[in-house]
Amino acid sequence: MAALRSTVARLLRGRTPAPPAEPPLVGFVVHGAGGVHPASAHIRVVARMTALAASGAARVAQVDPVRWADGSDTAHLDAILVQRDAFPLASLDAAFARAAGEGTRIVAEVDDDFFTPEARARLAQAEYDADRLAAVDRLVRGADAVVVATEPLRAVLAAEGVDAVVVPNGVQPEPWPTRPARPDPTGDRRVLYMGSATHGGDLDLLRPVFDDFVTADGRRVRLEVVGVTGDDDDWFDRLALPEDAVHHPDFVAFLRERADRWSAGVAPLTGERFNDAKSDLKFLEYTMLGLPFVGSDRPSYAGVAGAGGLLVGDEPAAWRTALETAFREADDRVARARRTVLAERTVGPGVDTPGERAWRAALGLA
């Protein structure tokens, strides 16, 4: 028996240990390439994928959808996450067939209502043609898992017979300022409104608010618009984006360098069903920019008031009162909001909030 144990020990000492198993490979498909992506792609997908890779829980790679669908890209993916319409409609059937054959989990990521008739009409007017809308629909109906940004959007999909998991938006703290904005204590008050082209109708809510708006201490209040609409008007001021601010981190840098010019950030939303499914991203970003938040009292911003934000109806007088409150209480409101965002709504290696756990589970990494 002793001789047998000695022989086994010699054999074990001479055996080369098996290499550790590689982490799963997760692909992602978003608009943009080379690290330059639209804001939604960066916030919802790229930032999370970067954090996932940094944690060591998975290897990640941006995937060319056409090459992966037709097999030119031979990499075996354990999961592939596709945002919105980033996978061309003409290649989706081939992608589903390959995924089924190789055991690849397909995850759809959607952060807007692409499904109700009124929402589709609004998107078609902005930037989405019929094929782009059809690509989103085909993707979510065939995916193994669907991730959405809000509970109202989950309900929209449930009405379409599609199950989805809610993963709220989060922000990476590093690029943002670490203190409240310090606007000029004299002269005009400037208020920031930033957004995509789908918010042109929401901007109209603010016209009667800012027409001849003067604070109780005699200071004129002007709205500054970044994005939102291509039109110009005399009741607001446009702050043009440089061409190199298309990438979201560059956009954040653009805002950070100018944060001290603003006294508050606003987020108007009309009472359309499309808006009800939108997220509270503007609250997160204005907070991290160091600005007090004033927004429409819509489902998108449910809970914001308890974290230092101010919510109002459509009445211009209510908006003006809320803005004056925001100016007076800026430091306190920003501090309260920032504590909430940092504790509950950040993205990064090691972050273990319920939302980030749900996102990893959707990818099959739980």
Give a description of the structure:
The chain has 366 residues and is α/β, with parallel strands linked by helices. The chain folds into two domains: 25-170 and 347-362, Rossmann fold, CATH 3.40.50; 189-344, Glycogen Phosphorylase B (Rossmann fold). Helix content is 41%, strand content 15%. The protein has 15 helices and twelve strands. A six-stranded parallel beta sheet has the order 2-1-3-4-5-6, with helices on both faces. A six-stranded parallel beta sheet has the order 9-8-7-10-11-12, sandwiched between helices. Helix 7 links the parallel strand 5 (145-148) and strand 6 (165-166). The longest helix is centred in the first third of the chain and has 17 residues, at 39-55.
Summarize the structure.
This is Glycosyltransferase. It contains 15 helices and twelve strands.
**Arithmetic mean pLDDT:** 90
CATH topology of the largest domain: Rossmann fold
The secondary-structure element order is HEHEHEHEHHEHEEHHEEHEHHEEHHH
Number of strand segments: 12
CATH architecture of the largest domain: 3-Layer(aba) Sandwich
- The outline comes out as globular
Topology:
Layout lengths: L1 H13 L10 E5 L9 H17 L3 E4 L2 H6 L8 E5 L5 H14 L2 E6 L6 H10 L3 H13 L2 E4 L2 H9 L5 E2 L22 E7 L4 H4 L3 H4 L10 E7 L8 E3 L9 H11 L5 E4 L5 H4 L4 H9 L3 E4 L13 E3 L3 H13 L1 H15 L9 H9 L4
Helix pairs in contact: 4-6
